[in-house]
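Open question from group meeting: does this chain pack into something compact, or does most of it stay loose? Before anyone orders reagents, we agreed to write out a predicted structure and look at it together. Recording both the input and the output here so the notebook holds the full record.
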Amino acid sequence: MIKKITMNNLFGRFYYEINTKDGGVTIITGPNGFGKSTILKVIDALSSMNFYYFYQIDFNEIIIEFDNGEFFNVLKKNNSISYDGIILNYDELINDESILDDYRRYTRFISKQSKEFYIDRRNGNKIPNDELLDYIISNDDNSFKYLMMEKTDIYEQLIDSLKKVKAWCGEVRFISEQRLIKRENIRRDEEKVIDVISELPNQLKEEINLVYSEYSKVANSLDGSYPKRLFAAKEGISNERDFKKKLEETNVKFNNLIKYGLVDMKIIEQTSYNDKFSEALKIYFDDFSEKYAVFEGLIKKLDIFTQIINQRLSFKEIQISRQNGFEVVDVDNSNRKLKLSQLSSGEKQEIVLFYDLIFNTKSELLLLIDEPEISLHISWQKKFMDDLLKVAEDNNIQIIVATHSPQIINNHWDIQIDLGDKYYEQLNKKLS
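Structure tokens returned:
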């Protein structure tokens, strides 16, 4: 995990030393233009091996220190960048005509129109010859990586170096301020825009069905061996008190399954203890616990998801089922279903964000969240950090949040770092 981030001469102005907070969550605040989002994007760029990003920002040095004592530094001088000692010169790349000519063949959306310029057929933009490579790279995130692959030795060294960063960070996920849509490339010259929230019910349905498939395996195995285990049983439920305790525990688990429509299992109807069936009862309760254990992790996620979202929805609530994943229904009439498109922007943001955090987040993760306050009512902003900590508490997750909002911080000022304060402290030191 990341222990410290040092930014030297960011935007030609700022020097920051940011020590991440104990407990796994660090909140970075500051005025616009002070580099909150840039700090997150730097980490994401290193993890995703987006080398070109470092040519787009102004800095002298970036140092990242990890909790295992390792360091990684990026140095920039003019258009030459050193990634932990491996130097890549951008000018050499864009002036290498053999690379450019070879690469041009793969850019189907670019056509040569004259000796002076090219044209982007997607939008009609005219591109002067000497600006072609910059244009391609800035409009295609993978272009710089493809171009560098022509410099095989340097590229392979960089990849090997950044693999270490990925290992030291853990998996890195960047949740940007724009969460409601995503773009996918169908072909190199065609893009598809997807409304994210519309995909979530099917994603949850798949998640439930995956767990249900595992449950079916466990249930079939237990049910198939039941007679053999019953005839061999030498121990049973010993008295009525133990029977009632087991029955109560089983009813709680059963109600959890029914609440989300996960299975059609039937609960035992016997409510009084009969020692003739003590062995059978013990096997029944033990088997039920083993079957339920398959769903336990999913139910915990569903509990957190519905609690967080239903606190925010007005006059409506999330309803979970195996058949539909989830639906939004009227609280006074559960038969009245609401289309997800009918929800407010803030409601959509919360559903998309917390679904992502709860169902798509694994342990050993560095989670970067940019401006979670987007479209959120102030009362929702105040709940955000408590809910975020609730999501993270059972996982080994490091979280760095960039925000403008004091309401997001709420009562968590002990884990906040303000870039404005750091800048003015440095400025005062220089003046004194």
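Observations to bring back to the group:
The CA atoms of residues 1 and 169 lie 5 Å apart.
The chain has a mean pLDDT of 82.
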